[in-house]
Design brief:
This protein is an alpha+beta fold. The protein folds into two domains: 8-148, no CATH class; 153-212, no CATH class. The chain is 44% helix and 14% strand. It has eight helices and six strands, in the order βββααααβββαααα. The chain has helices spanning 42-53, 55-59, 63-67, 78-84, 108-119, 134-146, 150-178, 202-212, and strands spanning 8-11, 16-22, 31-35, 88-92, 96-101, 104-107. It has a six-stranded antiparallel β-sheet. A hairpin with an 8-residue loop joins strand 2 (16-22) and strand 3 (31-35). The longest helix is centred in the C-terminal third of the chain and has 29 residues, at 150-178. The termini are far apart. The model is unreliable at 125-132 (pLDDT under 50).
Length: 216
């Protein structure tokens, strides 16, 4: 049996593959917000598809929910990046055909009608924002999706900081190999919670290097 993947479909008429980020816009229920995944820059494509196909992505009712919690390789929020770089496009719901697998096709309009019937209201609906422009509405949706997810970004930055610190320790160890007079302490990694061992800070290393240099 063919794998079932949510959020994916095609643009009727062009048959271009797309991913539906927002099923419908709150003040324009006749329109959806999509990403043409095949046209994404290479630096974003793999991360985007991994998020979509992940357990969280497939469990989410709408794709924007998981994109607001995921980050690209550079630590930036997926949802915010797609919005700021203009990679999300507004197209009529009637022009979207959902294709969860190779043997199933369902118009998004029919899917929404079924979801409305089950929920007793409009699927994908969020509080209305009268007199908003399209850009303002999208920005509001992005901000709402990002709310409370800054911790995820912070954690990613901390990981990068740790990696940089480890690289710095390796560089200090290499420096000692080339000039043992800098001291064996520079080879020791910093102890967690107690600061860096004496003699291994950038200032101390510079002072010791100057002291060890031959006078003219």
């Amino acid at each position: 049996m063919a794998a079932f993947i949510k959020h994916v479909g095609t643009h009727v008429g062009t048959n271009t593959r797309l991913s539906v980020v927002f099923l419908r816009l709150p003040d324009e229920p006749e329109n959806a917000l999509v990403v043409y995944s095949d046209s994404l820059p290479d630096k974003y494509h793999e991360d985007f598809m991994s998020a979509l196909e992940s357990k969280e992505g497939q469990a989410a009712k709408e794709l924007y929910e998981v994109l607001s919690r995921k980050v690209f390789w550079n630590g930036n929020s997926m949802l915010e990046t797609l919005h700021k770089e203009g990679l999300m496009k507004k197209i009529p719901v009637e022009q979207i055909m959902m294709n969860p697998n190779s043997t199933t096709s369902l118009p998004l309009s029919d899917l929404l009608a079924q979801m409305d019937e089950i929920a007793g209201g409009k699927a994908g609906n969020t509080p209305e924002a009268p007199q908003q422009t399209f850009q303002e509405n999208v920005a509001e949706q992005v901000d709402a999706g990002l709310d409370g997810d800054n911790k995820k970004i912070a954690q990613n930055l901390l990981v990068q900081a740790v990696m940089l610190e480890e690289e710095a320790e390796r560089k200090r160890a290499e420096a000692v190999k080339f000039d043992p007079s800098l001291g064996p302490k520079a080879e020791k990694p910093a102890k967690k919670g107690r600061g860096r061992p004496a003699g291994t800070t950038a200032k101390a290393m510079k002072a010791r290097a100057e002291a060890a240099a031959p006078s003219e």
